[in-house]
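Lab meeting notes turned into a lecture example. A postdoc, R.K., suggested we walk through two folding results consecutively so the class can see how the record format repeats. The first protein's sequence and structure tokens come next.
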Amino acid sequence: MRCEACADNIGALIDGDLSPEDQRALERHLEGCAECRALVDDLRTIRAAAFTLERREVPPRVWAGIQAQLAAAPSGAARDRA
């Protein structure tokens, strides 16, 4: 497996969303690729740190604004801006 081929799977690995077969293939790649292994380590560190942050509630007026923009946007337009 080449680095380019595993790039999409790294996020899924961190989130625990890979199939067992894809996970084994990626883990084999990580055994021999220090660059991808470092990326996985960094992402795991970031994810762990994110879970330590204080949870904050979004004010209702913010959600109302988001909903209004989504309702006013043509179908798929909000996705295209992301």
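The second example is placed directly after the first for contrast:
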Amino acid sequence: MTCRYRGFIPLIAWALLSLSLRCGALAEGDIFGGIDPGDYVTGRFDPVKHRLFVSLADSGVPTDGRRQLLRREAAAALRRLYNDFRAAHPAVPFHVRSSTRTFVDQKSIWEAKWRRGASQAAGKGMKPRERALEILRYSSMPGTSRHHWGTDFDLQVLRNDYYETGAGRVLYRWLVENARRYGFCQPYTRGRSRGYSEEKWHWSYMPLAGPFRAGWNRLYRRDPSVFTREGLFSGSGAAGDLAPVYVNEINGECEKMLRE
């Protein structure tokens, strides 16, 4: 198959990176920065020590004050996006609330929600798979989050209704209309039949997220027990087989970007 870039995105750096990843010009070791691919796609590494990760604050992107890291390619694209948004809307709030998360980070989030569900009256009668499905509305199982890859970030408010009125709506509408030009898309939108619920705050840098998702799928096909074995996290034995659904069910526009 002939590999060619057919998109119209005007940023040359974005286009060349996307083309090189799809055509195989970058070896796996270059994509993963010397980390074992399986460890990388499941978040079993320290992004602080990874040579291809950078601080968003140091890159000129506002954060919530905590240390937020992304892959340097994603951070550079996000800086361009932010600068252009700020020029168009100087008074509208914009900052990153969450970015790269490790397996340990994601497990902490998952386990806290698992315990909270077990303590609530509605959750006490739930079987493990039912409890996992409830958490999976908005939170990933450890080892399956796009946030492991350094490609995804969450904006300041984790509620869809914030982005439906006022300043939040201005920000969201601008992103819907423009984020694609910088390589970003919203992976979890309304109208999908499976996977996570809509998240208007969550955006993904597709030139890298696409290859990393492919690497994740290769790992799962080779050894599903990486996600399904008992004791990996609460409910892993009962719900780990759902991992491919939640990793792969994303917005069709994001999928289209990967094919262009």
